[in-house]
């Protein structure tokens, strides 16, 4: 093969290439963190395991052994000796109502691991004892009657006996809720006239007195609980919830719907302060004022917004999970839900709009 490049030019080009390569290596910023001496699970079939990795910003820049990561060391690199421990990729929960639910994480009592009603009521009493009299305690989901040794829900009488000085609110899915006697008093359920709890039906005995059992739909229960938990430290609760998620290996979440606009504010505040400890993707649901013109409402909402946006920490991921209120079955546990033709048409209109704009869309699964 005959070279058309003069020898001097070839040598000059080679020298320039070597110099440029060396300069690029020297100019490469050091990693922020290096993990080494561990068992790193990559979930990459081509390299399923490694012993070290280097992280710069939000990116893994090197993975392998010490040789692969040592060149990324710098004066300010934080080095962590794993001492043989295993590292796994962070977990991402792709459907969790964390934004709104996390805001009452430190306000609510949780029964998911209670084996008996006695244990459940003891937990509720312990939380009540840490609060001033007349402050609410609440259990909102995360339990079913069948989990208890007694195979039933608590009675209003049991709640009243366990918590004579604190109003208590116990919600079972979106089927019903229970309030104790103090809760009946605080809500004014026996007042004349009784209060208007939007969408809530109060069960009454033969004398017309409230029994403490409430019925409603998803919107009504959410509104009632928002009122009950109005004194909760919402940003503090969300911070603690995210920290607890981190402690369990979760580094990313997607929230399909956080509800009203105000529910997103604590999340945005954390993002603006640079305090998000995990990646958060969120979608925007329909709002009550959109009833009857949902597609136009979403069109107005998206008029000055890209179909999706992701800054590496917070991501807008489109529309969901409730797009037309009349198409939401309220988390029914049995068949029998039906929606009007008008609502079905509205849902098709929203879906068509989203498809034309390339906007991601998530729809709640419905019973039929």
TrEMBL record:
Assigned EC number: 3.5.1.91
Amidohydrolase domain: residues covered: 78-366
Species this protein is from: Salmonella enterica I
Listed Gene3D superfamilies: 3.10.310.70, Metal-dependent hydrolases (3.20.20.140), Urease, subunit C, domain 1 (2.30.40.10)
A Pfam cross-reference name: Amidohydro_3
Endpoints of the signal sequence: 1-26
Broad enzyme group: hydrolase
Protein name: Putative periplasmic protein
PANTHER family: IMIDAZOLONEPROPIONASE, PERIPLASMIC PROTEIN
Keyword Signal: yes
